[in-house]
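Q: What changes when glutamine is included in the input?
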Amino acid sequence: MDTIHELRAAYIAGTTNPVAVVDRLLAVIAERDPELHAFLEVYAETARAEAEQAAEQLVAEGAATPILTGIPLALKNNILVKGKRATGASKILESYTATYDATIVARLKAAGAIIIGATNMDEFAMGGSTENSAFGITKNPLDVTRVPGGSSGGSAAAVAMGAVPAAIGTDTGGSIRQPASYCGLVGFKPTYGAVSRYGLMAMGSSLDQAGPLTHTVADAELLHSIMAGVDPFDGTTITDETYPPVPTKETYTFGVPRQFLADGIDPDVLAVFNDHIATLKTAGHHVVDIELPLFEQGLAAYYIVMPAEVSSNLARYDGMRYGLQVRGKDLVDTYEQTRAAGFGAEVKRRILLGTYVLSSGYYDAYYGKAELVRRKMRRELETAFQTVDIILTPTAPTPAFKIGAQEDPLAMYRQDIFTVPVNLTGVPALTFPMGQVTREAVALPVGVQYIAPHAGEARLFAIGKTVYDRAVS
Ligand code: GLN
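A: The predicted holo structure follows.
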C-alpha cells in the first residue's frame, strides 16, 4: 500500500519517480483488473506521458512542485475529464466524450495529479453494489465473490487492489462511504456545497457531493482541500462564512443514536461498533446515547426526494443532446425508444417513481411530506449538536454482501440506512475501517461513520487522523 503522502515523500527524496510508479500501477491493473473490472477505461498512454513530464518537473523543482505532481488517481466515470469518455456506466452515454473538465478535475490537474483511468459504477450512481453498471459488475478485491459496494464501487476496488493510492467518487446517499466500508478504506462525504458539482453528472442535485476514497484520513484531507472551495460555475458552493466555525478539541463528546441502531444491523457489525466505542472511551472521549427519532424516516424521505430529482435531472438524456439516439417514427417516439434502449432497469424504476411523486395530486402527499421530514431532520440534528460534537454510527449495517444476493431493490435500499440522513441534512461525514467480521473464513472490513455539524470537516479530519491514521501507521 502506498499513500499519497508516502509517494510525495519518495518523489521529493528521489527514491522513486512517477514513471516507475505509473508503470508499476499499470502492471497491477493488467494483472488484476481483468477479473475485478474496477476500470471502464485505463489511460495508459496519457498517464505515461504525464508521468514523464512530472518526473522531469520533480528533478528540476523538487519540493516547489505542486503537491500532487506525479500522483496517479482514478475517477468515477460520472466526472467529466476533457477529451475522455464520460459514460456514467450507462448505455445512453456509451459514446459520449466530455468537452470540458469538471471543476474538481481542473483543480486536481492543476495540483499535478495524473488521471490514470475511469472507474466503474452503478448506472448514473444509482445503486449500492456496482451491479447496476451497463458494462458489467465490479468485484471486491478482498473477496471476489462479493460486491465492492456502490455506487462508487470501481473507485473503491481500484484503491483496494493497489491500482491507485486514491480515487474520487460521488456520494448522493452513501456512494463513497458504503464502498469504502466494504473495501476497507477511508471515505469522505463533504458538507453540501463544499465541493463544486460543475462537471459531475447530476443525480440528486440537492444531495450530490464528490469526495475521496483513500488509505488514510490525511490523504482524504489533502484531496478534499484541493477540490473544495467556491466555484462561480456552481451557485450552491459555500464560503467559509456560510456556517459558524466548528472548533477542534482534545477530547470530544460522541453521540450514538442507539434506538436507530436497534433494527436490521448485523450483530457482528454491532459488536465491532461497540468495541470501537470502548476504544474511544479509553482514549478519554465521552460517548453518550442520543435520540434522533426522525432519522428512522430518512430512508423513506430519501427514496422520494432522490427519485424526484433523478426524474428531472435525467430528462436531458433524450437522444437529441448527448450519446445514444434510437430513431423512431416521430420526435416523441425517438425520445421513448432512446430512453427505453439506453437506460437500465434501476434507472427506469427511479425515473418512474420520481415522476409519480412529483405528479399533481401526489406532490403534497409524497414530495412535500418528504421535504418536510428533511427540514425537521435538520433541526433534530442541530439540536443534537448542541450537546454532542460528533455523531457515531456504523457506516453500513453489514459487511460486503455476495454478488447477486440483494435481488429485492428494497433490501438493497436498506444498506443506505445510516448514510442517507447525512446527505438529506447536508452535513459532512467520514468513514474509516473500525474492524473486521469473518464470513466463510474471510475477514471482511467494516467501517465506522463520524458525522459532524455543517462545515465541520476540520474536526472530522483531526479526529480521524488521531483515531485511525495513528493506529495503522
Ligand atoms: N445507494 C444509494 C442509492 O442507490 C446511494 C447512491 C449514491 O450515493 N449515489 O441511491
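Observations recorded in class: The chain is about 40% helix and 15% strand.
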